[in-house]
Amino acid sequence: MKPRTRARSIALQVLYETDIANSHLPGDVLKTRLEETLLADDLAEFARQIIFGVLPLRQDLDQLIAKYAPEWPLDQIAAIDRNILRIAFWEFAVSRETPVKVAINEAVELAKLYGSDSAPRFVNGVLGTLAEHENEIHQIIKNRINHEKELES
């Protein structure tokens, strides 16, 4: 497994566990995963950025997935697939440091490793639909983040 894919895998494991067991703190889960799987500092930081980038926007990401891919109801998506989608979606629509094609390919690889037999095609289809609206989605997320910052001030 490529180093950044391994970092995404760690992030996925943390997001999945905190999604399933709400009482598990993401920082504690990450620490445990990093003790089990050694990652270079920059890769551990990449995993941390994904986790703490996705978590506060989880609800927003889910709403946008539901809006732009309504043929896949979120409550019917397996938890592992939902978190794979969140990671890739966050990478190309929020962080924007990962090209869309790379984010989708990495998500498909994670789906092959962790999802069901149909997960790779499913993840590819949903993310393909979301990618068509990348700029619009980025603007929506940016506006929500700015609005929340204003409310905190």
Throw out a few tags for this protein.
globular; 77% helix; mainly alpha; 153 residues; 8 helices; N-utilizing Substance Protein B Homolog, Chain A
Please describe the topology of this protein.
Blueprint: H1 3-20, H2 26-36, H3 41-54, H4 58-68, H5 79-95, H6 100-114, H7 119-131, H8 134-152
Helix pairs in contact: 1-2, 1-3, 1-5, 3-5, 4-5, 5-6, 5-7, 6-7
Q: What portion of the residues fall into strands of 2 or more residues?
A: under 5%
Instruction: Using the CA coordinates, give the radius of gyration.
Output: 15 Å
Order of SSEs: HHHHHHHH
As for the number of domains, it is 1
Shape, principal axes of CA atoms: globular
| CATH topology type | N-utilizing Substance Protein B Homolog, Chain A
The residue-averaged pLDDT reads 91
Low-pLDDT ranges = none
CATH homologous superfamily label: NusB-like
Query: What kind of sheet is the major sheet?
Result: none
Total number of strands:
0
List the total number of helices: 8
**C-alpha termini separation:** 43 Å
The CATH architecture classification is: Orthogonal Bundle
Structural class: mainly alpha
Helix content: over 70%
